[in-house]
Amino acid sequence: MTEKDELANRVVEKMMQDDLFSQWLGIKILEIREGYSKIKMTIRSEMINGLGVIHGGIAFSLADSAFAFACNNRNNLSLALDTSINFLKPVHVNDELIAEAKEIHNGKSTGLYQVSIINQHNHTVALFKGTCFRTGKPLL
Q1: What are the domain boundaries of the chain?
Q2: What is the pLDDT of residues 94-135, one digit of tens each?
Q3: C-alpha distances in Å from residue 121, one per residue of 17, 45, 58, 60, 125
Q4: Most buried pick, 9, 39, 87, 140, via CB within 10 A?
Q5: Does domain 3-134 have CATH number 3.10.129.10?
Q6: Distance CA 36, CA 27 (A)
Q7: Which residues, at least 6 apart from 27, have a Cβ–Cβ distance to it below 8 Å?
Q8: What would the pLDDT profile of 18-46 be if each residue is shown by its tens digit?
């Protein structure tokens, strides 16, 4: 593991320690590299809406956490400027979701990330895009 990836992992460890919402979601970290994150969670019954599928806010939140871990892991506090999500397939109770955030652009003051969410059948269930603003303040 490179020094940059070690720093990225320390930053995300600290973020996760303080992120009670991601903890409530049951998010587990799978892989962190500079500008990249891969996380997973299992859908619980309290995450389902009145139509019997996952509430869109849950999928969005999973993607948003992956986005946050990827764009902040250089130890440069970064905040969302713009985000969007496309829901492609329904998600149900007990589905296992993996969100993978990839850096598209790393600028001095902004970054652009794409997050794909797949289920246990390797079907893409959602695509998320996020732009962040880099504050220049360290997290650690």
Answers
A1: 3-134
A2: 999 999 999 999 999 999 999 999 999 999 999 999 999 999
A3: 30, 19, 19, 19, 10
A4: 39
A5: yes
A6: 16
A7: 16, 39, 40, 41, 62, 65
A8: 999 999 999 999 999 999 999 999 999 99
